[in-house]
Amino acid sequence: MSGPWAPDFFWREAQRLGYVARSAFKLLQMQKQFKLIGAGASVLDLGCAPGAWLQVACRSLGPLEKGGTVVGIDLKKVHIPSYHCDSRVKTICADVMNLRKDQARTFSPQGMGFSVILSDMCPIVSGITTKDAALSCELGKRALSLAIGNSSCKNNSEFLDSFEDDTSENGVLRRGGNVVIKLLESKDTEAFAKFCKQRFRNVSWLRPKATRSSSKEIYLICQGLR
């Protein structure tokens, strides 16, 4: 088998190590470089299917006695992988685009919000570059809106205006928390970085090694919500 979706090193390694998808290695690289998920963290995984990031996030929490939680949300029902996951992982079938911030907050421990939000959401790719990039931006904005809420968007708030559709001002990301958002590269992606640099202590771009050469995806990594 050949072509852009042929099995490769990362696919084979995922099979060997018990990960449900090669995308696990993208988050593993982020975790190694940026240490996004600490022991006992509370993690919200948006667009969690098929579950590889749930596996990596759970492993990153440390031993079971350290506590922590991983909540995955996806349009489709996602079965929690039996390997690399434990009782700290749960999944919810819901549409992130219609999810209110107060609803999302109830999924967190004691309703106090999450310390890490991961968004590996991606549109169904049409092959039309501009259309796919625009849809990717919409998903990225939604993830940011859920994370930081209205109260963090008073300046240049037009960036997220179309997503401020509920009255809850506070996002579900705790102060000091981290966000990872997948985007498809376009002329608009730099607007994300500019917006986030005003709200996080550190903002970086990463194209993980496990990203296929044909893919336009890139990850925005935001650390330390102000």
Automatic annotation (TrEMBL):
InterPro entries in the cross-refs: RNA_methyltr_RlmE (IPR050082), RNA_MeTrfase_FtsJ_dom (IPR002877), rRNA-MeTfrase_E (IPR015507), SAM-dependent_MTases_sf (IPR029063)
Active-site annotation: 182
Top-level taxon in the UniProt lineage: Eukaryota
SUPFAM superfamilies: S-adenosyl-L-methionine-dependent methyltransferases
MF GO annotations: rRNA (uridine-2'-O-)-methyltransferase activity
Keywords, in A-Z order: Methyltransferase, rRNA processing, S-adenosyl-L-methionine, Transferase
Domain named Ribosomal RNA methyltransferase FtsJ: residues: 19-224
Gene3D superfamilies xref list: Vaccinia Virus protein VP39
Protein family according to the UniProt entry: Belongs to the class I-like SAM-binding methyltransferase superfamily. RNA methyltransferase RlmE family.
Name used for this protein in its record: rRNA methyltransferase 2, mitochondrial
Species of origin: Dendrobium nobile (Orchid)
